[in-house]
Amino acid sequence: MKTLKIRWYKYASPATFYELAGRMVPWFAWAALLLGVAGVWVGFFVAPSDATQGEGYRIIFLHVPASWMSMFLYVVMAGWAAVGLAFNARLSGMMSAALVPTGAMFTALALVTGSLWGKPMWGTWWVWDARLTSELILLFLYLGQIALRAAIDDPRRADKACGVLAVVGVVNIPVIYFSVQWWNTLHQGASISFTHAPSMAITMLVGILLMTLAAWMYSISTTLARLRVIILEREHDTAWLGNLMEHSS
Fold this sequence. Notes:
Layout: H1 14-46, H2 60-87, H3 90-122, H4 130-151, H5 155-169, H6 172-182, H7 202-234, H8 239-248
């Protein structure tokens, strides 16, 4: 009896993954657009006003997904970086590099929308709260990745240096997540918990989940598109890319 063997390792090749990523980008991009439109409609036009925060609470439909994605993408980036350091895999370093700009964007969006929410609720744009401060540190970690990579000419050396920074910096993620439990902070607790029933209206929950899925799909599509550019930059003198350019011309 023959056994079906899936050669997952073949997708570790930049040449193979380049074509796979090209096929996936449009699907995830369209999914991001459709989910985003649905999320905005539910969050800003269907969900009811909050009893205490009024209409101002609707910023959470941007803030919460952005905050989640800022942490999630850093963990994914650090995971790819760790694989690259452990196995010296070229594609892992490229994937880690491709994730950084999107993660930095979501972190900046989380901080900006948090300030917009904090001004009417706290009476100030910024406080040195544990959650806000650790999220700001996360933004510096992302920017540090970009600066360190730009300072090193050799891409492979840059991958290793940024990989070490990513793995070390991942300790900040649990600090962000548990900060509202470990310290007395102004920031409210988790909006959604896996151990308790949601305290918000179901339409609010649906709006947040739709926007989160949209942010997830957007992250995948932009990361894969950016990865293809990185592969083209690094593999420009390889035979497979030359053959690909000949066939596409």
